[in-house]
# Entry
Amino acid sequence: MTAYFDNSATTMPCEAAVEAAKKACLKNWGNPSSLHFKGLEAKKLIDLARKNAASLLCCEEREICFSPSGTSANNTAVFGAVNEKNKALNKIVTTAVEHPSVSKCMDFLEEKGFEVIRLKPDSDGFISLNDLENAIDERTALVSVMAVNNEVGSILPFEELKKIVRRKKSKALVHIDAVQAFGKIPVKASYADLITASAHKIHSLKGAGLLYVSKNVRIKPYLLGGGQENAVFSGTENVPSIAAFGAAIEEAKDVSAHLEYASSLNKYLRQRLSEFDFVCFNSPENALPYILNISVSGIPSQVTVNALSNLGVCISAGSACSKGHRSETLVSMGLDSKRIDSAVRISLSRYSTKEEIDLLCDSLEKITDSLK
# Structure
C-alpha cells in the first residue's frame, strides 16, 4: 500500500479528465482557430470547459481566459494590471506569503520603481484586514493576495478585498491567486477583477490554467501573437489539457460536499498526529482542511520526506516551487529556525482515505524512532 499526500503540488488526474484529454487527442485534435469542421470540434471542447469554469466562478463565459499554467496566469494578471495604470499609480499591495509566481513578479516590479507593500501574517499565517485597509490608498495600482496559502493552508481575507478598495475610493485592481482555493472553497468573480487557477491542482492534467478577467477591466498581455483567448494568452490552445480541465471542474463542482469530507479527514489526521509528542502543528485549526503543515522535532524536513518516501508515503518539505529554500511563509509567521527546518506539508484530496492516513502516521512513528 502507498499513500499520496502532496496534493498541493499536484493531484492525481480524475478519470473524467483523462477521458476528456484522450478524446481531444484522438478525435478532436484540430486547431480551434481553424474554421473547418475539425477546428470547430476542438473549439467546442474549449467552449464547454469555459462554460464549466464560468459556472463555478459565477461569471460570464467571455470573462474566462485559458492559460498554459497557473504561473503564466499569475504573471499575466500582475504585469497586465500594472501596465494599464498611469504613472501616478505606482504602488502595489500584496503579502509576504505569496507563491513565487506572484512574489517574483513583485520583486521585478520593485526593481522597476514600483513601491511594493508586503503585508506580514500573524503567527497563524493570517493577514489583518486593518493592515490591508491601511496599506491601500490613491496611489495603489494593484492589490494581489492569494486566497489560500499553499504551505500552511491559512485562508486570507480575499472576499473583502474589493470592498476595501471601494471603501478607500482607490482605483486599484484586485487580483486573487486562487490556485489552492479553486474547486475547494467558494470563490466568486464578484470578489476581484482578476482571479487565477490551475488545472492540475483539481485532478486535471498539467498544461492548463485560467485567468478570470472582469468584463469591466482591460489588461495588457505580455504574450503577443495570434490573439487567442481574448488576446490575453496568444498561442494555439492546449485542447487536451483544457478539455480535461473542464471535465475536472465539472467533477469538483460539489464544493461543499468535498470540503466536508476533507474536514473529516483533517480532523482524523490531527487526532492521530496529536498522539506523538514529537509533532508540532504549524497550520491553524481553521486553515483550509486540505492542507496541514507540521514540524517533526529534531529531524530535518527533507530527511523526513525521504524516509517516508522509502516506505511508500509521499509528503513534501513545502512548496514544490521553492525547493531548496527556507519557507518564506514560516519565516514571516515568526517560527523559530529549528521548527522551520523540520517542517513538512501534508496535503489531502477528495480521494484521500483514513487508511492512507493510518499508513502515514504509522510510518512517521517508525522513522522517527530510527532516525532519532
Summary: The chain has a mean pLDDT of 93. DSSP finds twelve helices and twelve strands in the chain. The longest strand covers residues 140-146.
